[in-house]
Each structure stands twice: as structure tokens, then as C-alpha cells.
Design a protein that fits this description.
The protein is α+β, with helices and mostly antiparallel strands. It is built from 5 helices and 16 strands. The longest helix is centred in the N-terminal third of the chain and has 24 residues.
Length: 262
């Protein structure tokens, strides 16, 4: 009997660890699970069809009072700001699996004009999130922002900064007649950022981190980034805010904007 109880305890611990790993796996820096949902307008939305674009997701419950109160924040604070950018896509997802009329009522009350999908409870589960939450996915399909509280104006503002950073940092350098792009993640960063160079052609010798006043707040030498690999750059306790990362070589300079949040 004692052996059986110990076995059950071990299995339970394994299960809890498995669930925790899966939940953490959908955090910032993880690959966004693909999905396909039908929208109220009768179209289908498949996440992987939008690779190369920044994707904004708003998870809501069609009759949730605080979702109804916050829904317009996503329209005025996010969609209005980026809807004209062809590299941006927005989708609302009803995770309460309401009827079409129920979801249409939510749309009418919140004033949302971006596409809204129905029957999204399975997507909510795969992203380990809940309703009245925002998630932002970058051009490579990586989660770069995952809200842990309701979509208030403050949370919308934080998500907006991340989207702005992702849309304005697709900068390139030229080496001969070829272009080179780097990727930095996660956005927002905390203690460190990673620099990914999938097609290295230029050797950067040093880096500089600048604040928005143009002051260099961090600098150092930079090891060669092997193609397809990433290096970690500790941020050494920099305060929350918007910064510029500048990589320098003998003939080139490469700059990207990023955000730090604590």
C-alpha cells in the first residue's frame, strides 16, 4: 500500500512538472502555437498564414463585463494605430465559444472593427492564457508580449510599445549587393537580450546600448555570431524603458530599438 502511494505521488509530481513546463513554454520567447479559426464574417484565420507580420491577439469572453469595458481599448489603442501598416494583423478571439449573435453583440458594444474569431477556447488553452488578455507575436512566430492582467489602457500601452518596436526595427545593413538582418529577442527584455544572426556575413566587433537621449549606457566587445546561432547580451540592471542597440563593425553599423520591462 505504501509503495502504491509513493508511485502515485511520483506520477503526480511528473504530471505537475509536465503541466508547468507546457505553461512556461507558451511564455515570451516561445514559438506561438499555430491555429485556424472561423471569423464572424465567415472567413478563416490561420496564424501561420501571417508569418512575416506582427500579429496582435485579443482573447475575450463575449459576455464578460470587463472584456466589454476593455475591448475598445484594443481598437483605439492598438488597431487604429497600426491598421494601415501592411506588416500588422489583429484578431479578436472569443474564448467563451459564444453564438454568432452573442459575439456580434460584443463587437457592436466595443466598437471593434478588426477581425473577430469564434470558438477559441482551444486556442486559449494552447496559449496557457485566459480571457481579457493580449498577446503579441513577432514576424518569426515568436511570442514577444503576453499580458498577465486585463486589457486596460495601461496594458494596451505596453503592448503598443512592443508592436512599435517590432514594426520599426526591421532594419538592414548592406554587404556588397546583399542585405543582412539580425533578430533580437525577447521584446520586452528583462535581464538580457539574445542576438540571432541567421545569415552572418559581417563580423561585428562591439556593441553599444543607448537611451533615447542618445547616451551610451552600456557597451562592450562582441563575439562573432555564428549563422543560425544566438548570443546572450546581459543588460546589467538597466531600468525599464526604450533603448537602441547598435552593433558596429569596421565598415557597418546596425541599429535596432528594444524595450526593457521589469
Amino acid at each position: 500500500m505504501k509503495t502504491t502511494k509513493i508511485s502515485i505521488l511520483i506520477l503526480s509530481l511528473h504530471f505537475l512538472c509536465f503541466m508547468q513546463i507546457n505553461a512556461l513554454g507558451q511564455g515570451v520567447g516561445a514559438s506561438a502555437p499555430d491555429f485556424t479559426l472561423s471569423t464572424v464574417s465567415g472567413d478563416e484565420f490561420t496564424l501561420s498564414d501571417h508569418t512575416g507580420k506582427v500579429v496582435f491577439l485579443f482573447f475575450f469572453g463575449y459576455a464578460c463585463s470587463h472584456c466589454l469595458a476593455n475591448g475598445n481599448n484594443t481598437e483605439t489603442g492598438i488597431y487604429d494605430a497600426f491598421k494601415s501598416n501592411s506588416d500588422f494583423v489583429a484578431l479578436g478571439i472569443d474564448t467563451w465559444d459564444g453564438s454568432k449573435s452573442g459575439v456580434e453583440n460584443f463587437i457592436n458594444q466595443t466598437g471593434i472593427t478588426y477581425p473577430v474569431a469564434m470558438n477559441g477556447s482551444s486556442v486559449q488553452s494552447s496559449y496557457s492564457t485566459t480571457y481579457d488578455r493580449i498577446i503579441v507575436i513577432d514576424q518569426s512566430g515568436t511570442i514577444q508580449f503576453k499580458a498577465t492582467s486585463n486589457a486596460t489602457s495601461g496594458v494596451v500601452s505596453d503592448a503598443k510599445q512592443v508592436i512599435e518596436s517590432l514594426l520599426t526595427t526591421t532594419s538592414t545593413n548592406h554587404f556588397g549587393n546583399k542585405e543582412q538582418s539580425l533578430r533580437i529577442y525577447p521584446i520586452p527584455a528583462k535581464e538580457s537580450i539574445f542576438i540571432d544572426n541567421p545569415d552572418a556575413r559581417i563580423k561585428y566587433s562591439n556593441f553599444e546600448v543607448l537611451n533615447l537621449s542618445g547616451q551610451i549606457v552600456l557597451s562592450g566587445d562582441l563575439n562573432y555570431i555564428e549563422p543560425g546561432e544566438a548570443i546572450e547580451l546581459p543588460l546589467n540592471g538597466l531600468d525599464s524603458g526604450i533603448y537602441l542597440l547598435r552593433l558596429n563593425s569596421e565598415t557597418n553599423s546596425y541599429t535596432k530599438r528594444f524595450i526593457i520591462t521589469h
